[in-house]
Amino acid sequence: MSNDLFPAEVIGTRHVTPLMIRVTLGLDGYVSSGAADEYFKMFFPAEGQREPVLPQVVEGRWVYPEDVAEPVLRTYTVRRFTPATGEMDVDFVVHEGGVAAPWAMQARPGDRVGLSAAHGLHRPPPEAAWQLILGDATALPAIGRIVEELPAGTRAKVYAEVAGPGERQEFDTRGEVEITWLYPGDAALPEIARRHDVRGAYVWAAGEAGAMRAIRKHLRHDRRLPAGSFSTLGYWRPAAEEWQRRFEQVAPGVRARVAVTRERGGDSEQCQDEFDAALEAAGL
Fold it and tell me: How remote is the C-alpha of 104 from its chain's centroid?
């Protein structure tokens, strides 16, 4: 766990599309991880607080002062960061319920949140001839940054799943990018992955966790792509609280299976295989 935590202040907000709000934050000391899909934990104020209380890191754990309401944490993507000004854009999908979307819709200059250090997975190997990028609306901030940071001439095919034509976005890029927008009723992202020729590609996919698990399983076990030639990230789950409740009931067994794999010398991909298999066995 990183010791780096950053207080951040809202500078402004605007709608990118009807269902996507961009919040611009000002912060000091942040250093980019270098990955175009870098993500962080955002600390939102607890109920009754004007700004979140950030923890101290003690022996690798976040420790909060006693008798203080802990902030609410959610994971978000760095849409854009400008080191010269210390300004960061974070995009939020508008939806009912939850903590983050209502906060973003009501955010005003001067509001404060906290950020953890960021990490990312988008690291195409040098030998990749092109990129296949798959994601739903929650992945658009990362997709936008990936596309905009492509080196000149890099080929990429993007499939982006959104609510309708009004949610399409424009991206400036030096790459040779073909974007296909998917709407309700079109082929789902796992189907796109199954029917696509991925020879020579680096595949990056992010979105709903179940869909991402299916894509990863196909790429690793059906296509037998080598580790490092693909990255999948599960950003969200439907009925997440119910899923978490059910997971906590089986978590000790799931973690034990992964621990055995690790003790036998399994690498990170093999441990992920075991984790996914344990979830499927538990009906999750």
Answer: 17
Two tokens at 217?
Answer: 């399983």
The DSSP-derived string for 230-271 is EEEEEEE-TTHHHHHHHHHHHHHHHHHHHHHHHHTT--HHHH
Dist. CA 6–CA 55, nearest whole Å: 11
Question: Distance between alpha carbon 115 and the CA centroid of its chain, in Å?
Answer: 14
CA distances from 256 to 45, 85, 262 (A): 35, 46, 10
Name 179's bridge partners.
Answer: 158
Q: What is the pTM of this model?
A: 0.92
Instruction: Take residue 259 and report the two structure tokens written for it.
Output: 């621990």
Written as six digits, the tokens of 268 are 């990170």
The string of pLDDT tens digits covering residues 172-224 is 999 999 999 999 999 999 999 999 999 999 999 999 999 999 999 999 999 99
- Partners of 7 in beta bridges: 114
Residues sharing a CB contact under 8 Å with residue 281, sequence separation 6 or more, in sequence order: none
What phi and psi values does residue 142 have, to the nearest 5 degrees? -70, -40
- Which two tokens mark 200? 């020579």
